[in-house]
């Protein structure tokens, strides 16, 4: 076994309050493309007439919900995606009482599908959708089984995915819970994120311990702060350190 993997395995066995902070790279191994890499949505999706960042903005949703849903249904929802080894091993680590929280930038719900209980979804979830008029919640199937702009069965209002769009702020309670968990953690594992985009990097700053683990295929601006740095696939690493 690789020396860094052995080191990580030992550190995990010595820790009792682990927090995992994850990004798109956690889900790419489940077949969900990320945004900014070469194979990512921002580079591969070009036929919608507007840049993805614009379509996924609050003002665009309000002005042009039909076009938003065209894009959203075809590029943001992966209904058949299954949790991969990273999701499954993290759920196991929580069951063992070692992992206390997952903070994720992903909106796919795969951590919960793998069995994880304490998951702070910074950017919301495709599995929650709500009526903008009366607040009634709807499951993902309401979006996938409808055409055009989905409407509330109760009041006819427009249904919006509970995902954070550009121009929208993050949920304060989720931010606070995430920060609290990271501050208390004896070990912070950051995985599958390039840490280039706000607010990812700012969360890592709240960690005060000496076991900051960075697992990412490519380099990140935080590499030099890591107590242990592993440039590899996150699923593979977790599979090797957790039986
Ligand atoms: Zn309604």
UniProtKB/TrEMBL annotation:
It catalyses: N(6)-acetyl-L-lysyl-[protein] + NAD(+) + H2O = 2''-O-acetyl-ADP-D-ribose + nicotinamide + L-lysyl-[protein]. Its EC number is 2.3.1.286. It comes from the Bacteria. It is found in: Cytoplasm. InterPro entries: DHS-like_NAD/FAD-binding_dom (IPR029035), NAD-dep_sirtuin_deacylases (IPR050134), Sirtuin (IPR003000), Sirtuin_cat_small_dom_sf (IPR026591), Sirtuin_class_U (IPR028628), Ssirtuin_cat_dom (IPR026590). GO terms for cellular component: cytoplasm. It holds the Pfam family SIR2. This is NAD-dependent protein deacetylase. The gene is sir2.
